Amino acid sequence: MKKLFLAAQLLTALIFIVFGANGLIYMATGNLLIPLPPKTESMGAFMASLFAAKYLMPTVKIIEVFAGALLLVNKFSNLALILLGPLVFNILFVHIFLDPPGILVGVIVTVLYSMCIFARWKSFKNFLFN
User: What DSSP string describes the chain?
Assistant: First the structure.
């Protein structure tokens, strides 16, 4: 079971590092290293509004890379998971409501994140319920 949770942590870390860095590179150069699938019209409008607020997407992408790196090196993993929580929530719900064809991405990220939380439930239980 420990190996399964470790694999979930490493996959979560890699997802956020790779796609966070991809977003930062896009904002710096205008080119994606990893092409993304086409967006629905509503998803495109939503993403355009996020990019219109000049500070928001760079902040999100820096948090993704930072928290992913913390998970990867297994230092301050609880902090990393707390930072990623709102992002995972939004990834899932944006795909549910604005981009249903991309729902698999949201489900995979949410399942991996939930496995990471479950592996550290004792720490989070004390944090949440005391």
Answer: -HHHHHHHHHHHHHHHHHHHHHHHHHHHHS--SSPPPPPPHHHHHHHHHHHHSTTHHHHHHHHHHHHHHHHHHTSSHHHHHHHHHHHHHHHHHHHHHT-GGGHHHHHHHHHHHHHHHHHTHHHHHHHHH-
